[in-house]
Amino acid sequence: MANIGYREKPFQSIVGVLSAAHKPLHGQRLALVRAGWIVLAVLSLSLFIVAVPQRFTDLLQAGVDYAAALSILDLPITFYALYFLLPDVVTVIVFTLVAAVLFWQKSNDGMVLFVSITVLLLGVTFPPTLDVLSDQPWLWRLVLFIQGLGTMMSLTFFFVFPNGVFVPAFSRVVTGVIMAWTLSWGLFPNAWITPPAESGLGTELFMLGLYVMGLGAQFYRYFYISDEENQQRTRWLVLGLTVTLISWAFFSILGWMTPWLPSGLPRSIYGLIYHIASSYFPPLVLLLAMGISILRYRLW
Q: What's the 3-state SS for 176-217?
Protein backbone atom coordinates (compact mmCIF):
# COMPACT_ATOMS: atom_id res chain seq x y z
CA MET A 1 0.00 0.00 0.00
CA ALA A 2 1.75 3.09 -1.23
CA ASN A 3 -0.59 5.70 0.15
CA ILE A 4 -1.72 5.56 3.76
CA GLY A 5 -4.19 8.38 3.50
CA TYR A 6 -2.32 11.48 4.68
CA ARG A 7 -2.07 14.90 3.15
CA GLU A 8 0.95 17.17 3.06
CA LYS A 9 0.95 19.56 6.02
CA PRO A 10 3.55 21.95 7.43
CA PHE A 11 3.84 19.84 10.57
CA GLN A 12 4.00 16.51 8.76
CA SER A 13 7.82 16.49 8.91
CA ILE A 14 7.75 15.89 12.67
CA VAL A 15 6.45 12.39 12.12
CA GLY A 16 9.14 11.32 9.72
CA VAL A 17 7.66 7.93 8.90
CA LEU A 18 4.27 8.72 7.45
CA SER A 19 5.29 7.57 3.99
CA ALA A 20 5.52 3.94 5.09
CA ALA A 21 2.37 1.94 5.76
CA HIS A 22 2.12 -0.93 8.17
CA LYS A 23 2.72 -4.21 6.34
CA PRO A 24 0.92 -7.53 6.78
CA LEU A 25 2.59 -10.07 9.04
CA HIS A 26 3.73 -13.43 7.66
CA GLY A 27 5.82 -16.47 8.44
CA GLN A 28 7.21 -17.10 11.90
CA ARG A 29 6.46 -13.57 13.05
CA LEU A 30 2.78 -14.01 12.22
CA ALA A 31 2.66 -17.38 14.02
CA LEU A 32 4.35 -15.90 17.09
CA VAL A 33 1.97 -12.94 17.27
CA ARG A 34 -1.07 -15.17 16.83
CA ALA A 35 0.17 -17.48 19.57
CA GLY A 36 0.73 -14.50 21.86
CA TRP A 37 -2.82 -13.29 21.16
CA ILE A 38 -4.26 -16.67 22.06
CA VAL A 39 -2.18 -16.94 25.27
CA LEU A 40 -3.29 -13.49 26.45
CA ALA A 41 -6.91 -14.24 25.59
CA VAL A 42 -6.90 -17.56 27.46
CA LEU A 43 -5.10 -16.06 30.48
CA SER A 44 -7.35 -13.01 30.81
CA LEU A 45 -10.60 -14.93 30.29
CA SER A 46 -9.48 -17.66 32.70
CA LEU A 47 -8.82 -15.07 35.40
CA PHE A 48 -12.25 -13.58 34.82
CA ILE A 49 -13.94 -16.98 35.06
CA VAL A 50 -12.07 -17.73 38.30
CA ALA A 51 -13.14 -14.37 39.75
CA VAL A 52 -16.86 -14.64 38.92
CA PRO A 53 -17.90 -16.97 41.81
CA GLN A 54 -16.07 -14.84 44.39
CA ARG A 55 -17.57 -11.68 42.90
CA PHE A 56 -21.04 -13.21 43.19
CA THR A 57 -20.43 -14.20 46.83
CA ASP A 58 -19.16 -10.71 47.68
CA LEU A 59 -22.21 -9.13 46.05
CA LEU A 60 -24.54 -11.40 48.03
CA GLN A 61 -22.86 -10.25 51.24
CA ALA A 62 -23.05 -6.60 50.15
CA GLY A 63 -26.71 -7.07 49.28
CA VAL A 64 -27.52 -7.68 52.94
CA ASP A 65 -26.96 -3.97 53.58
CA TYR A 66 -29.66 -3.20 51.01
CA ALA A 67 -32.10 -5.87 52.20
CA ALA A 68 -34.58 -3.30 53.52
CA ALA A 69 -34.65 -1.31 50.29
CA LEU A 70 -34.88 -4.49 48.23
CA SER A 71 -37.78 -5.77 50.33
CA ILE A 72 -39.69 -2.55 49.62
CA LEU A 73 -39.27 -3.29 45.92
CA ASP A 74 -40.11 -6.96 46.61
CA LEU A 75 -36.74 -8.09 45.27
CA PRO A 76 -34.47 -10.83 46.69
CA ILE A 77 -30.82 -10.29 47.55
CA THR A 78 -29.85 -12.52 44.62
CA PHE A 79 -31.34 -9.87 42.35
CA TYR A 80 -28.87 -7.37 43.74
CA ALA A 81 -25.95 -9.74 43.11
CA LEU A 82 -27.02 -10.65 39.58
CA TYR A 83 -27.86 -7.03 38.74
CA PHE A 84 -24.26 -6.04 39.41
CA LEU A 85 -22.63 -9.19 38.03
CA LEU A 86 -24.48 -9.72 34.76
CA PRO A 87 -23.36 -6.41 33.16
CA ASP A 88 -19.76 -7.45 33.85
CA VAL A 89 -20.31 -10.82 32.18
CA VAL A 90 -22.16 -9.32 29.21
CA THR A 91 -19.40 -6.73 28.72
CA VAL A 92 -16.73 -9.43 28.65
CA ILE A 93 -18.73 -11.60 26.23
CA VAL A 94 -19.45 -8.76 23.80
CA PHE A 95 -15.88 -7.42 23.81
CA THR A 96 -14.49 -10.94 23.42
CA LEU A 97 -16.74 -11.63 20.43
CA VAL A 98 -15.71 -8.38 18.74
CA ALA A 99 -12.03 -9.15 19.38
CA ALA A 100 -12.46 -12.70 18.09
CA VAL A 101 -14.11 -11.49 14.88
CA LEU A 102 -11.28 -9.03 14.23
CA PHE A 103 -8.71 -11.74 14.96
CA TRP A 104 -10.45 -14.24 12.69
CA GLN A 105 -10.98 -11.87 9.78
CA LYS A 106 -7.57 -10.15 9.68
CA SER A 107 -5.11 -11.94 11.90
CA ASN A 108 -2.28 -11.19 9.44
CA ASP A 109 -2.66 -7.43 9.94
CA GLY A 110 -0.53 -6.22 12.83
CA MET A 111 -2.69 -3.17 13.56
CA VAL A 112 -5.92 -5.19 13.56
CA LEU A 113 -4.32 -7.77 15.86
CA PHE A 114 -3.26 -4.97 18.20
CA VAL A 115 -6.76 -3.49 18.24
CA SER A 116 -8.40 -6.88 18.75
CA ILE A 117 -6.33 -7.84 21.81
CA THR A 118 -6.76 -4.31 23.18
CA VAL A 119 -10.53 -4.66 22.85
CA LEU A 120 -10.45 -8.04 24.59
CA LEU A 121 -8.28 -6.80 27.48
CA LEU A 122 -10.46 -3.71 27.91
CA GLY A 123 -13.53 -5.90 28.08
CA VAL A 124 -12.00 -8.09 30.79
CA THR A 125 -10.40 -5.34 32.88
CA PHE A 126 -13.05 -2.61 32.60
CA PRO A 127 -15.51 -4.34 34.99
CA PRO A 128 -14.44 -4.57 38.66
CA THR A 129 -14.77 -8.38 38.74
CA LEU A 130 -11.03 -9.10 38.71
CA ASP A 131 -10.50 -6.92 41.79
CA VAL A 132 -11.89 -9.68 44.04
CA LEU A 133 -8.67 -11.64 43.43
CA SER A 134 -6.60 -9.01 45.28
CA ASP A 135 -6.40 -11.24 48.38
CA GLN A 136 -4.74 -14.06 46.41
CA PRO A 137 -1.13 -12.92 45.84
CA TRP A 138 -0.14 -14.98 42.79
CA LEU A 139 -3.44 -14.57 40.99
CA TRP A 140 -3.35 -10.86 41.82
CA ARG A 141 0.05 -10.55 40.16
CA LEU A 142 -1.44 -12.03 37.00
CA VAL A 143 -4.42 -9.70 37.26
CA LEU A 144 -2.12 -6.69 37.61
CA PHE A 145 -0.14 -7.89 34.59
CA ILE A 146 -3.32 -8.14 32.52
CA GLN A 147 -4.62 -4.79 33.80
CA GLY A 148 -1.29 -3.11 33.17
CA LEU A 149 -1.04 -4.57 29.67
CA GLY A 150 -4.61 -3.52 28.89
CA THR A 151 -3.95 0.01 30.14
CA MET A 152 -0.71 0.27 28.19
CA MET A 153 -2.25 -1.01 24.95
CA SER A 154 -5.37 1.15 25.24
CA LEU A 155 -3.25 4.28 25.79
CA THR A 156 -0.92 3.30 22.95
CA PHE A 157 -3.97 2.88 20.73
CA PHE A 158 -4.58 6.63 20.87
CA PHE A 159 -1.08 7.31 19.51
CA VAL A 160 -1.00 4.72 16.69
CA PHE A 161 -4.60 4.47 15.43
CA PRO A 162 -5.45 3.81 12.62
CA ASN A 163 -2.27 2.76 10.79
CA GLY A 164 0.29 1.86 13.46
CA VAL A 165 2.37 5.03 13.05
CA PHE A 166 3.13 7.02 16.21
CA VAL A 167 1.69 10.54 16.01
CA PRO A 168 2.96 12.94 17.26
CA ALA A 169 6.57 11.85 17.22
CA PHE A 170 7.17 12.33 20.96
CA SER A 171 4.40 9.81 21.69
CA ARG A 172 7.00 7.05 21.30
CA VAL A 173 8.73 8.33 24.42
CA VAL A 174 5.42 8.73 26.24
CA THR A 175 4.46 5.18 25.30
CA GLY A 176 7.81 3.86 26.54
CA VAL A 177 7.30 5.51 29.92
CA ILE A 178 3.72 4.20 30.14
CA MET A 179 4.91 0.71 29.19
CA ALA A 180 7.57 0.67 31.92
CA TRP A 181 5.04 1.91 34.46
CA THR A 182 2.13 -0.41 33.65
CA LEU A 183 4.19 -3.57 33.16
CA SER A 184 5.75 -3.01 36.59
CA TRP A 185 2.39 -3.49 38.30
CA GLY A 186 2.63 -7.27 38.31
CA LEU A 187 6.26 -7.20 39.49
CA PHE A 188 5.67 -4.75 42.35
CA PRO A 189 2.02 -5.24 43.43
CA ASN A 190 2.48 -3.38 46.73
CA ALA A 191 4.56 -0.47 45.41
CA TRP A 192 3.21 3.06 45.48
CA ILE A 193 3.35 3.21 41.67
CA THR A 194 0.84 0.35 41.39
CA PRO A 195 -2.82 1.43 41.49
CA PRO A 196 -4.76 -0.21 44.35
CA ALA A 197 -7.69 -2.56 43.74
CA GLU A 198 -10.06 0.21 44.83
CA SER A 199 -8.73 3.30 43.13
CA GLY A 200 -9.39 6.69 44.67
CA LEU A 201 -10.11 10.10 43.22
CA GLY A 202 -6.43 10.89 42.59
CA THR A 203 -5.81 7.67 40.64
CA GLU A 204 -8.91 8.11 38.48
CA LEU A 205 -8.03 11.73 37.68
CA PHE A 206 -4.49 10.73 36.75
CA MET A 207 -5.70 7.94 34.47
CA LEU A 208 -8.29 10.23 32.93
CA GLY A 209 -5.55 12.78 32.26
CA LEU A 210 -3.50 10.16 30.39
CA TYR A 211 -6.44 9.25 28.19
CA VAL A 212 -7.24 12.91 27.54
CA MET A 213 -3.63 13.33 26.36
CA GLY A 214 -4.13 10.37 24.04
CA LEU A 215 -7.35 11.86 22.73
CA GLY A 216 -5.44 15.07 22.03
CA ALA A 217 -3.04 13.03 19.89
CA GLN A 218 -6.00 11.69 17.92
CA PHE A 219 -7.32 15.21 17.39
CA TYR A 220 -3.89 16.33 16.18
CA ARG A 221 -3.71 13.41 13.74
CA TYR A 222 -7.27 14.00 12.54
CA PHE A 223 -7.02 17.76 11.92
CA TYR A 224 -3.37 18.18 10.93
CA ILE A 225 -2.20 14.88 9.40
CA SER A 226 -5.09 12.91 7.89
CA ASP A 227 -6.49 13.64 4.46
CA GLU A 228 -10.24 13.86 3.82
CA GLU A 229 -10.60 10.16 3.02
CA ASN A 230 -8.85 9.08 6.19
CA GLN A 231 -10.82 11.62 8.21
CA GLN A 232 -14.03 10.07 6.95
CA ARG A 233 -12.85 6.57 7.83
CA THR A 234 -11.88 7.51 11.38
CA ARG A 235 -14.46 10.20 12.18
CA TRP A 236 -16.90 7.92 13.99
CA LEU A 237 -14.27 6.22 16.09
CA VAL A 238 -12.66 9.52 17.13
CA LEU A 239 -16.13 10.76 18.06
CA GLY A 240 -16.78 7.52 19.95
CA LEU A 241 -13.52 7.84 21.87
CA THR A 242 -14.43 11.40 22.81
CA VAL A 243 -17.91 10.47 24.05
CA THR A 244 -16.50 7.47 25.94
CA LEU A 245 -13.99 9.61 27.85
CA ILE A 246 -16.55 12.31 28.59
CA SER A 247 -19.02 9.72 29.87
CA TRP A 248 -16.29 8.08 31.96
CA ALA A 249 -15.57 11.43 33.63
CA PHE A 250 -19.28 12.13 34.05
CA PHE A 251 -20.02 8.79 35.69
CA SER A 252 -16.95 9.11 37.89
CA ILE A 253 -18.30 12.41 39.21
CA LEU A 254 -21.70 10.81 39.84
CA GLY A 255 -19.99 7.96 41.68
CA TRP A 256 -18.14 10.37 43.97
CA MET A 257 -21.47 12.06 44.79
CA THR A 258 -23.06 8.84 46.11
CA PRO A 259 -21.97 9.25 49.79
CA TRP A 260 -23.72 12.63 49.94
CA LEU A 261 -27.08 11.23 48.90
CA PRO A 262 -29.76 10.50 51.54
CA SER A 263 -29.45 6.98 52.90
CA GLY A 264 -32.13 4.37 52.38
CA LEU A 265 -34.25 3.80 49.32
CA PRO A 266 -33.20 6.93 47.31
CA ARG A 267 -29.52 6.01 47.51
CA SER A 268 -30.27 2.38 46.69
CA ILE A 269 -32.29 3.23 43.59
CA TYR A 270 -29.68 5.77 42.52
CA GLY A 271 -26.97 3.13 42.93
CA LEU A 272 -28.85 0.60 40.80
CA ILE A 273 -29.48 3.08 37.99
CA TYR A 274 -25.96 4.48 38.17
CA HIS A 275 -24.34 1.05 37.97
CA ILE A 276 -26.19 -0.13 34.89
CA ALA A 277 -25.61 3.19 33.08
CA SER A 278 -21.90 3.44 33.95
CA SER A 279 -21.33 -0.24 33.15
CA TYR A 280 -22.95 -0.28 29.72
CA PHE A 281 -22.87 3.20 28.21
CA PRO A 282 -19.11 3.93 27.82
CA PRO A 283 -18.08 0.54 26.37
CA LEU A 284 -21.12 0.25 24.12
CA VAL A 285 -20.52 3.71 22.66
CA LEU A 286 -16.95 2.68 21.85
CA LEU A 287 -18.02 -0.59 20.24
CA LEU A 288 -20.77 1.12 18.24
CA ALA A 289 -18.34 3.72 16.90
CA MET A 290 -15.82 1.01 16.03
CA GLY A 291 -18.49 -1.04 14.26
CA ILE A 292 -19.62 1.93 12.14
CA SER A 293 -16.03 2.76 11.21
CA ILE A 294 -15.21 -0.81 10.20
CA LEU A 295 -18.45 -1.83 8.48
CA ARG A 296 -19.56 1.41 6.86
CA TYR A 297 -16.31 3.20 6.14
CA ARG A 298 -14.00 0.20 5.64
CA LEU A 299 -11.58 1.25 8.34
CA TRP A 300 -9.33 -1.76 7.65
A: HHHHHHHHCCCCCCCCCCCCCCCCCHHHHHHHHHHHHHHHHH
